[in-house]
Amino acid sequence: MRKSTPYLLLVPALLFTVFVVVYPLVQNLINSVCDVSMIRGGKGWIGLRNYELVFKDTVFWLAFRNTAVYAVVGTVVALVVGLGFALLLNLKVGRINSIAAFLFTIPWVISPVVAGFAWKWILNDRFGIVNHWLASAGLVQIGTSWLGDPQTALVCVMLARIWQFYPFAMVMFLAGLQAIPQEQYEAAAVDGATMIRRFFYITIPNLKSVSSVLLVLGVIWSFNDFNMVFVMTRGGPMNASMVLPVLVRELTFVHFDLGRGSALSIIIFVMLVSLSYLYLRMVSEKDAA
Amino acid sequence: MRQTLFLVLLLSISLLSCGKKSDGIELKDWNFGGRPQLIEFLRARVISFEKTHPGIRVEQSDKSWNMIREILYADFSAGAGPDVMNTHANFAAEFGEAGYYYPINKFPDFEQVKSWYVPHVMESTRYKDDYYGLPASAIAFVLCCNKELFDKEGIAPPKTWSQFREAARRLTKDADGDGVADQFGLVLMGGDKGGFAYRMIPFFFKAGANVMSEDLTKIEFNSPRGIAALKLIADMYQVDHSITPGFLAYTHSEINDLFCSNKVAMSIEGPWFRGMVNDKSPGKDMYVVPVPVPDDMLAQYDTAPTLQDMIMYSINARSKHVNESWELIKYLRNQEADMYWITQDLGATATTQKALASKEAQGVRDIQLYVNELNHARPWPPHPSMIAIASNVFTPYCQKAVVGEMTPKAALDQAAREAQDIVDGKK
Predict the structure, then answer these.
(1) Which of A161, A263, A283, B240 would disulfide-bridge A50, Cβ 3.0–4.6 Å?
(2) CA-CA distance, B196 to A86, in Å (whole number)?
(3) Which positions 130-169 of B are in contact with A (Cβ < 8 Å)?
(4) Cross-chain residue pair B258–A126, CB shorter than 8 Å
(5) B384: nearest CA partner in chain A
(6) In the prediction, which pLDDT does B104 show?
(7) SS (H, E, C) chain B
(8) pLDDT of B2 higher than 70
């Protein structure tokens, strides 16, 4: 084998990466400092004007706040739910375990678009099952519009996101639980530790690294989530559930302002890279440990 | 190693040479949306075109209507895209301004072809001095009234705003007797920003308000007439409670379900609505009437403009075969082809004078109303940023006024300021 052969074999993969990752990224960066409108054409280099316009836009700050809430609160709640189900599955009560594990995992394998439409109908004000149940229990009136109310729209989308993400957390936590040495529990039991103390002093510390990784991954994925929000509310009503990925779409494909759309994409990219760096550091620390 | 690389190269070249070879001209025709029977019809029409035009082959593709702008902009800006496509007529401004559409008035027989169409409708394909498409199907926004509910209440479809408000009030009731209103006078499409704007503007137009000045330099929807139109809807929601409370989440499907299940009595729709309702609830009937006018304009009930929307067939300015594309769109949209819009319910109105005057057209329900409305209707102003203004400025502020977060005047003034910034290129 000639010395150059390995490098030659790497060329297709490198070319692919350049065209699919590097080129769009660089082009996006260039667009973000230029006036690029698909309608007006554009005036070329304008420095940081697009970033200035994005930061001055009140909808950006609303979308930023919504995205942060959607990503952080949504992920934390999904982790708590996932941990709860993982603890139940870890009880190993026989054949029902595998059936329950299968059922609990279903939301994870459903396409976000399909899940979004399903939730939209579940939460429908007149025909949705949620209102039907709650009205039967006398808690709300039929006609309560969960997705049409600016106060509840984001919470509902978050609920759907939690429903979709918790199975992944559950599977990861279950793996983590099964890796905890039984001797620790046995020793604690001998010392007279209650179930709650064992949970807080053995289970939780042993799941710390899994939780951290899940938290960062969940926040990254939710931060980038476009499908669920777009299908369920399109960022409405009146921008109440607007999140950053949907705002990128609005700027780029409704206003056709590629410059501002690119600037916002770069801002999101920087945020996600920071989170990814955090994730990689956690993984490497875990590996080192 | 060298042998292996040589073999890989040889294989790649062989694979590349296996592509389809075309002896004549190949046109790409992208069809956005449409009912299944229309898609079948267009396929048959293209096969017929290929037979009558030897040497031209047409490759048809069906695309999503919902992604039409994204798909076309992405392709056009990359210098690609189809030779021929059907799009919104208001894209004439955006794509005409951007130089993506071929001005069809350059063809020598254009004047003759233009005479096929209802003049008012043909004008909607014009931007500045050029025409950018042949009309495919036209839509006038009207008021659809649930016949069952209106007959049960013993009231006629409204003509004026007072009658409209009163009808909505009377048709809002607790139908199942549980103490909570479950039937409403009016439904609005609040979950689709574009759809909402399309349902508000007919009230503005009927009241005599403009969206923009004639020269497309000034936003005018915040005129007193425009504010009055928005106040009408806001009062119906906040004072009369005759609009469905959850309208901000509704799209087409929710409105259809509510109408079919007698939960709402009125909706601002177009010629597609009867077919859509009957697909879900066969035999369900409705009154189709013009959008009501302000009380002092009753005399202009039949002539005040509503909103017109239209689909047209256009040619890509970068097509290598513009002449052949022209032949294709003429064939797809000539008077003979247009008869299909008369004989089938395609959710829109035919656009050629011959088809509309045909004997068959006389038997089509509501067609006289739609033709009359189309003869007076106005499209959105042909400004390249109109869709962005309608969806992201006009709609959110109107919705804030309807639900009471802002007064109609404050909402429209603020919307006008932001829209003006877009028009002036400041935003």
Answers:
(1) A263
(2) 45
(3) none
(4) yes
(5) A39
(6) 96
(7) CHHHHHHHHHHHHHHHCCCCCCCCEEEEEEEECCCHHHHHHHHHHHHHHHHHCCCEEEEEEEECCCCHHHHHHHHHHCCCCCCEEEEECCHHHHHHHCCCECCHHHCCCHHHHHCCECHHHHHHHEECCEECCEEEEEEECEEEEEHHHHHHHCCCCCCEHHHHHHHHHHCCECCCCCCCCCEEEEECCCCCHHHHHHHHHHHHHHCCCCCECCCCCCECCCCHHHHHHHHHHHHHHHCCCCECCCHHHCCHHHHHHHHHCCCEEEEEECCHHHHHHHHHCCCCCEEEECCCECHHHHHHCCCCCCEEEEEEEEEECCCCCHHHHHHHHHHHHCHHHHHHHHHCCCCCECCEHHHHCCCHHHHCCCHHHHHHHHHHCECCCCCCCHHHHHHHHHHHHHHHHHHCCCCHHHHHHHHHHHHHHHHCCCC
(8) no
pLDDT band at residue B6 under the 50/70/90 scheme: low
The class level of CATH for A33-288 reads mainly alpha
The pLDDT assigned to B24 comes to 85
Which residues on chain A are in Cβ contact (under 8 Å) with B247? 148
Q: What is the pLDDT of residues B55-65, one digit of tens each?
A: 999 999 998 88
Q: Are strands B84-88 and B25-32 parallel, antiparallel or unpaired?
A: parallel
DSSP A180: S
Please report which confidence band the pLDDT of residue B4 belongs to, taking 50, 70 and 90 as the band edges: low
Residue B206 has a pLDDT of 97
pLDDT tier for residue B76 given thresholds of 50, 70 and 90? confident
* Beta-ladder partners of A37: A41, A257
CA dihedral B124, B127, B129, B131 (to 10 degrees): -60
Looking at the DSSP bridge assignments, the partners of residue B62 are: B31
Question: Closest Cα to residue B168, out of B152, B148, B183?
Answer: B183
Q: Which domains does chain B have, with CATH numbers?
A: 24-132+309-376 (3.40.190.10), 142-307+382-423 (3.40.190.10)
| Predicted confidence (pLDDT) per residue in A159-202, tens digit | 999 999 999 999 999 999 999 999 998 999 888 888 899 999 99
Q: Is B258 on the interface with A (CB under 8 A)?
A: yes
Question: How much is the average pLDDT of A271-289?
Answer: 80
Q: Which residue of B has its CA nearest to A153?
A: B249
* Of residues A5, A38, A145, nearest to B245 (C-beta): A145
Which residue in the set B191, B261, B400 is minimally distant from A234, CB to CB?
Answer: B191
Give, as one character, the DSSP assignment of residue A94.
Answer: S
pTM flag (> 0.80): yes
Contacts of B254 in chain A (CB under 8 A): 124, 126
Give the mean pLDDT of A62-75: 95
Of residues A255, A3, A56, A189, the one with CA closest to residue B393: A255
Is A13 a residue whose pLDDT tops 70? yes
- pLDDT at position B64 is 85
